[in-house]
Amino acid sequence: MLTRKEKIYEGKAKILYKTNDPMYLIQYFKDDATAFNAKKKGTIVNKGILNNQMSSFIFQFLEKNGVKTHFKEKLNDREMAVRALKIFPVEVVVRNCVAGSLAKRLGLEEGMALQQPILEFFYKSDPLDDPMISETAPVALGWMTQKEVEYVNQEVWKVNKLMTQFFDERGIDLIDYKLEFGKDAQGNIFLADEISPDGCRLWEKGTGEKLDKDRFRRDLGKVEESYEKVCRLICGTL
Asked: Which residues, including other chains, have CB under 8 Å from residue 148's CB and lie 6 or more apart?
């Protein structure tokens, strides 16, 4: 049985704790909400509980379909046990439809269909507003090897195929989302972080209603209700 020990990291939405087993950490989900790299702050009631439940469900789905994730088990409402990893300082963003910063950068209308998904790399740095980098930058800067970049790319396309179908079957369009990866002490790479409305743009099929953190970013209201709705659609229950 894992025992929670000292805190080793606190981010905008989660806290990581050491455990009595050096191979695993405890990941705690907070209700804190941030946007625009923490320039906007607030609280989404029970967000941590919902995101933990949704992430646990999706990680298990991905594991069953051949994707290696850091997820070990859901411990309670707000905590999951995860593998201890060294996280790459890179966010991979997959875009299945035009929205958010892509629409702004290119002057395109949100909701515009793409001929194929777009994959983008960003450097994880709040002070620098997570700048976009080229796919060759992680190797050039010594953050990842070429083989690691190639493996991540391969896993991202596998994840996207699984996730778009997963959400489609639940009446949700997966517009875009971010993924993070890390490696264990043996160099094995795993999908990490979380998968929830915090890091995914999710639009209700047919209506286009936003069911994700854009409701907080853009002051659209009904934030808690939207997270609860996604949780029901994903997990079948709260």
From this structure: 88, 138, 183, 189
Q: Identify the residue whose tokens are 């060759």.
A: 136
What is the CB-side half-sphere exposure of residue 98 using CA atoms within 13 A?
A: 14
CATH superfamily of 86-221: ATP-grasp fold, B domain (3.30.470.20)
Report the C-alpha gap between 44 and 53 in whole angstroms: 15
* pLDDT tens by residue, 117-158: 999 999 999 899 999 999 999 999 999 999 999 999 999 999
Per-residue pLDDT tens digits for 8-48: 999 999 999 999 999 999 999 999 999 887 778 999 999 99
CB burial class (10 A; 0-12, 13-18, 19+) of residue 147? exposed
List the chain domain ranges. 4-83, 86-221
The class level of CATH for 4-83 reads alpha beta
The span from the CA of 215 to the CA of 223, in Å, is: 6
